[in-house]
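User: Predict structure, ligand pyridoxal-5'-phosphate.
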Amino acid sequence: MQSNNFPIDDVRAQFPALNFKNHEQVFPIYFDGPGGTQMVQGCIDRILEYIETGMANLHGTFSTSIKTDDLLAEAKKAVGDLLNCPAEEIAFGQNMTSLAFQVSHSLRPLLKEGDEILVTQLDHRANVDPWIHLASETGASLRWIPVDKEKLVLDLTNLDSLINPKTKVVAVGLSSNLTGTVNDAKRIFKAAKKVNAITIADAVHAVPHFLINKQELGSDVLFCSAYKFFGPHLGIAAIKKALFEQLEIPKLQPAPNEIPYKLETGTQNHEAIAGLCGSISFIESLGSGANRRERLRSGMEAIETHELELVASLQQFLKSVPEVRLYRAAEEVPKTPTFAFRIDGIHSRQATKFFAEKFNLCIADGHFYASTMAEIFPVMETGGWIRIGFAPYNTMDEIEIFKKALRELLQRKT
Ligand SMILES: Cc1ncc(COP(=O)(O)O)c(C=O)c1O
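Assistant: Predicted complex:
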């Protein structure tokens, strides 16, 4: 069924969770990439290797401590190549949300009453609420880039007035974890830079699907999360050196003052950081080129090509089912392979429960913390959305099983 050259069998062989059958001996179909992907073998191997060959804390004279120092340096360099920014700008943390909250605290001295913070209606609340908190702590006011409800894109018509000399922080997601819409963040950040605002990018749903170029994007701060791209539960922040040095990050006495360590409160999750190196190597292994950045670019392109084929098949099917209401921007709008939809007359939870129990299909329902969107439409009283999001290990055959499942669900209804 696979028509592109993507090495799907080889890729699937690297994800052991794909072979873990349920109690009825049915293989799982993971269609919840946006909620978190499965872990690639290279990541698992690196985690185990770190543990099995001896763990340690940093800055010691003995071999496992030196190994751990080297590991952190290796991981930051790999993330730097993934995002195109210097390794010294990379800090690790518990998850994206906690890092964003920490950064929002540290921005307090830079804001005052009367300033403005700009967020979007389309974003995951992890890239909204830390800035709401910042506004309430400083007396700044919060403004929103609205969503065009018909087009499912950010409405940038009034960008010129939304971003003005009072604007101090602009927080935008690179792509929506609900609709998959890829935002024109570069344009927004360019406008923000004209008034010297701090630009914050939530790249959590973007990094698994296209190559980020932090320098070109114009973001001062960028967050992502390794468990969304085949890795461990680990948050990542990339903060431009000049701003990072200025940030007054709440810290305890033993914490270093230097970047990037000043954001890394306490001992880090070294085994997860080892795993992260394995997940980045996986993307790299799908590509070719003279250096790691080039291999990552070509690896991401291979992933994109594969996912586009899956998108075409699922989209055509969902559009052909009269009961399905798809929430997806027009063809010309760039999108990740993430679909939100609802089924007429069927509660979203009832549908995902049926898919899970009958077909071992892992499909999520709800608002996925894009809760502003859920309020705007409003959908929560009737169960929110059903979301399918692909990862590189998904196949056309799995989509065929989903088609069968949906047809069966609709038949039961009648
Ligand atoms: C777009 C987006 N931003 C932020 C987050 C929060 O990330 P974390 O779970 O690392 O806090 C998520 C998680 O689903 C997300 O999809």
